[in-house]
Amino acid sequence: MKFSEQWLREWVSPQLATQALADQITMAGLEVDAVEAVAENFEGVVIAHVIDKVQHPDADKLSVCQVDDGSGEPLQVVCGAPNVAVGQKVPFARVGAVLPGDFKIKKAKLRGVDSRGMICSASELGLEEGHSAGILVLPALAPVGEDFRAWMELDDSTIEVDLTPNRGDCLSIKGLAREVGVLNRLAVEGPAIETQEATHDERFPIHVSDPERCPRYIGRLIKGVNVGAETPLWMVERLRRSSIRSIDPVVDITNYVMLELGQPMHAFDLGNLHEAIDVRLAREGERLVLLDGQEIALRDDTLVIADHRGPLAIAGVMGGEHSGVNLETRDIFLESAFFTPLAVAGQARTYGLHTDASHRFERGVDPELTRLAVERATALLRKITGGEPGPVIDVTSHDHLPPARHVELRAARLEQALGVTLASETVEDILQRLGMVVHETAEGWRVEAPSWRFDIDIEEDLIEELARIHGYNRLPVRRPQARLALRPDGESRQPLSRMRHQMAARGYQEAISYSFVSPELQRTLMPQAVSPRLANPISSDMSVMRASLFPGLIKALEYNLNRQQSRVRLFEAGLVFRGELDDLAQIPMLGALACGPREPEGWGAGRETVDFYDVKGDLESLLAMGGDAAAWRFEPGQHSALHPGQTARVLYRGDEVGWIGTLHPAVRAELGLKVDAVLFEVRLDALTQGRLPSFVPLSRFPEVRRDLALLVEEDLPVQSLLDCLREQAGEWLTELRLFDVYQGKGVPEGYKSVALGLTWQHPSRTLNDDEINRLVDAIVTETGQRFGARLRS
């Protein structure tokens, strides 16, 4: 629901600024999505009168006009609009005026003719999107010389409210004003709506065949309307500020009443109605061409408005094209109805439609509003289009109207739920301002919900109303009391459970091994390890505390291989123990082991075995979970249990926190293993560290990518090369990707070709080739000086 702030303030105007008003509405449970100005900034535009117009001597599509802008002397203006005419009142930008887009009006010559100003279109003033075909013509009563912006009241804001489905009563200015009034304890005063007396006795018969779905249907015949009349500019503007396009005065008035009061309405061309209106379910095989031109086949569960020839409209959704008002229409049949929410719910979506009417009827429209809306629309029609109204035809099934709902509210329950005692006078004032009838009882109050509040059914509904109007921020804050103190836990910390799920998702199974291992196995894997020896071990092969998770994982691997399990994926989280008892460090670690085929056995799976890079990828998936992958590094290292050429230290923010590598061939031979295995072990305190994500806006400008193939010595770590590139690539580098490493024909012996993709993107403009070329030159120069790298030809 989008509405004009000025329109709302005609009903109720609290002493609040625009943003404060929007905040108040949001805090009351009606979330404000956006607050926007109704027009772009411009100045120097006044109302002028076109007093003369002649053809431009040298241009067929231009006119030379004389305009009176109230300054006392007519001004000559060259205008290209096809609809400019003598006698019109128009918005006129004087010399020196500034239009939207910082467009300044200056004296000019157009095809040799002086032009001192500009007659403006709606799009040039920022009042509509796209390009207008002609100038904006103002009403004849517009005062010449007055500031156009002030006269149009364009210093206004539109407020867009995102309503929950239970608050359909706020889909109107009247409903929103009621909320603002009760929040500020102010009276709400809308326009006076007087009964429009009939000036003729003609009626059009109405029959409601399905009163359960349509308990109330009201119609009125209005004769002699002028559909060609012009919708007043004030109404067009209010519709525009609610994102509704002006069509013709009859449609505009029905839309205006819907926005003002919340009652959807429809006007039929009486000349296309036959015998009588019937509100019924559609029949098998019936079709209807809607106002948007599409033809649909009606289902037999769809409520329709029909005459004796067939359907005229889908009830509560959209009218038909054949019976709609057009320029030839002289007599109209105005309808206003109450359709039950269940009768309309889902009907629009099943036909691929969504209309303002269906949006309201699905949420519930006040059944007491139908007649009031007819009177309001009739008054506006008589004033704008003329016409003679007939008597109001009211077909109501009182047995099917929603019954009055009475809810008991206990004072003790209210105090218990809110944690504060509200005075009886406050409770009654809030509920009465919300339109409820309140009767005091021994235990509290008996409340009758108003007809427009379909969401008030139980005691908790009333408590919610009192809480939000009293103010959620005014309710006391109470912390729960408990004997156990809660330990603080940073939001950036990654729970171990997530890591367990991640490893399981990548095909690993969790192992839980003893903290005691064989001293021989630990000595084979880590000869220099120091850990406590048990005084009374369970057995001799479980006599020392583990200094690493590797012994337990390798023991589990042996167990599985001895039972013909050739593909093993295991991980474990637990403590390792380093040092003697008087200086013991208990370090939580997470380790993993993988061996065997890369993919499970299957007809489509290859026979490649898992390697270092497969397990490194699994570890990197854990590192990425913290949102700080750039803080992690892998560097070549030497570990007694791991292959010298396939081992890396794992660094976090420069500190060594783990190892990854392939099991050392000598260790594998000593243990009698016939397959390679890849292992890693990382400290949990580093793994669980993370970085809170922060929003970075997406750039709307194109990326620029350059691919470089650099020849470097084969023993140069690629990470060093990547670090150098990041240093030289500048702040706009968004991605650096290694996509190929090649040795062979065309590459000198002892060298390798490293292919890198660099992507740049600027947040606020398009990068040009000169800037990128300078960065690439700097990269080539620096890598050449530092590593002896050169571009591969």
Pick out its properties:
extended, six-stranded antiparallel β-sheet, Phenylalanyl-tRNA Synthetase, Chain B, domain 1, 21 helices, Phenylalanyl-tRNA Synthetase, Chain B, domain 3, OB fold (Dihydrolipoamide Acetyltransferase, E2P), seven-stranded mixed β-sheet, alpha+beta, 793 residues
Which SSEs are present, and which pair or pack?
Elements: E1 2-4, H1 5-11, H2 18-27, E2 31-37, E3 43-55, E4 63-68, E5 75-79, E6 89-99, E7 103-104, E8 108-110, E9 113-115, E10 118-119, H3 148-151, E11 157-162, H4 173-184, E12 206-208, E13 216-223, H5 233-241, H6 249-261, E14 265-269, E15 277-281, E16 287-289, E17 295-297, E18 303-307, E19 310-314, E20 318-319, E21 332-338, H7 341-344, H8 347-350, H9 356-363, H10 370-384, E22 388-396, E23 406-410, H11 411-418, H12 424-433, E24 437-440, E25 444-448, H13 459-470, H14 496-505, E26 509-510, E27 516-517, H15 519-525, E28 544-545, H16 550-561, E29 568-578, E30 585-595, H17 612-624, E31 632-636, E32 642-652, E33 655-663, H18 665-671, E34 677-683, H19 684-687, E35 704-713, H20 718-728, E36 733-742, E37 751-760, H21 769-787, E38 790-791
Parallel strand pairs: 12-15, 26-29
Antiparallel strand pairs: 1-11, 2-11, 3-4, 3-6, 4-5, 6-7, 6-10, 8-9, 13-21, 13-22, 14-21, 15-18, 16-17, 18-19, 19-20, 23-25, 24-25, 27-28, 29-30, 30-34, 31-32, 32-33, 33-34, 35-37, 35-38, 36-37
Helix pairs in contact: 1-4, 5-6, 6-10, 20-21
EC number: 6.1.1.20
Cofactor: Mg(2+)
Pfam family, one: tRNA_bind
